[in-house]
Design brief:
The chain is mainly α. The chain has 17 helices and two strands.
Amino acid sequence: MDQKPAFTEPKYRVILFFVTALFMLWGIAITLGDVLNRHFQNVLHISKSHSGLVQLSIFGAYAVMGIPAGLFMKRFGYKKGILLGLFLYAFGAFLFVPAADAVSFDFFRIALFILACGLATLETVAHPFVAALGDQRTSDQRINFSQAFNGLGGVIGPTLGGYFILKGQQIHSNDLIAVKYLYVIIGSVIVLIGVLFLFLKVPHLTHAHNEVIDYENAEGNKKIEKKLIHQKHYVFAVVAQFFNVAAQGGTWAYFINYGHEMVHLSDERAAYFFSLSMIMLMIGRFTGTFLMRYIAPYRLLSIFAAANIVMCLIVAQGAGWLSFIALLFINFFFSIMFPTIFSLGLKNLGGKTQQGSSFIVMGVIGGGLFPPLMGLIANHDIAAAYYLPIICYIVIFLFGYCYPRLAKPN
């Protein structure tokens, strides 16, 4: 009688806990970028489409750093890859000091780009790292579990930003001093975590994705490793991740604007609602992790993508609180998409898993290209801008729907 594979093994629990904490750290940085988007509009007097370049700086770093981070990880291993990511994260955070002193949007973009190179490195390393900490058949569950704490970071980010940066009655709400101080604290915390990780022992790992899974028969099969370009499920995963992060980047970049313009919230209160939406994202990831024990990950992905098509249609109507509530629910259904696409794409890649991780991370550039495009529409109608993510969720739906045939061994 076959037993269900374990979530992980006892020897991996400590390292899984630590790497999961890293997911939270880059969640803080990503969502703080969306707070900065709105703050720069106010303080530096730039348009919505121009402020969308904040997301281009962040997600553009993923396109630049994805392959170098993968090569570094392959040469020096998971541990040194994570240390490199933490160093770049901290260095970029400390660059906020001269950027604030110079009152320069371009300088902030440079600092954000370097910081995001660290985030890209951490993501490139952490996803295959978590996947390797146990049986391949439970890698979807482990990555979704870790990504739930990325959602916790997403709650903390806008909460910090709302209180320290956008708070209306605060003395520094109309300048860049609070931004500078906040990022000095963040950089210091990242340095401390890097020192702690330096002394953490990482066990020897045999990668979880060395076995091939047939999703039609749910049986393990051996086969000769194919080139990445010939792995249809993997190629579609890269495309799906591009559109997935495009939807994320655009939705999050103008969340505070939407709350301010459509339901007349202050920027500070809108930021707190953004934190609430991230709580919903976190709940969605824990819910998704549970449901994947009963529903195939690719099928659940399609269901959630279809739900978000409906949510976007409601948001685009600009129907006051009804549309704003739908905007909150986008994050619930968005929750499982990034980790599930990532995990499904990495399956069956064998020795090419680390290289494959690099290209999927590069797909994150979608989050940099989409916000300026949405911003052009949002300059005139913030609600109508939310028609654009529907295109992205259609692609994700098709990825999940077609996955069993794409991943089936020949």
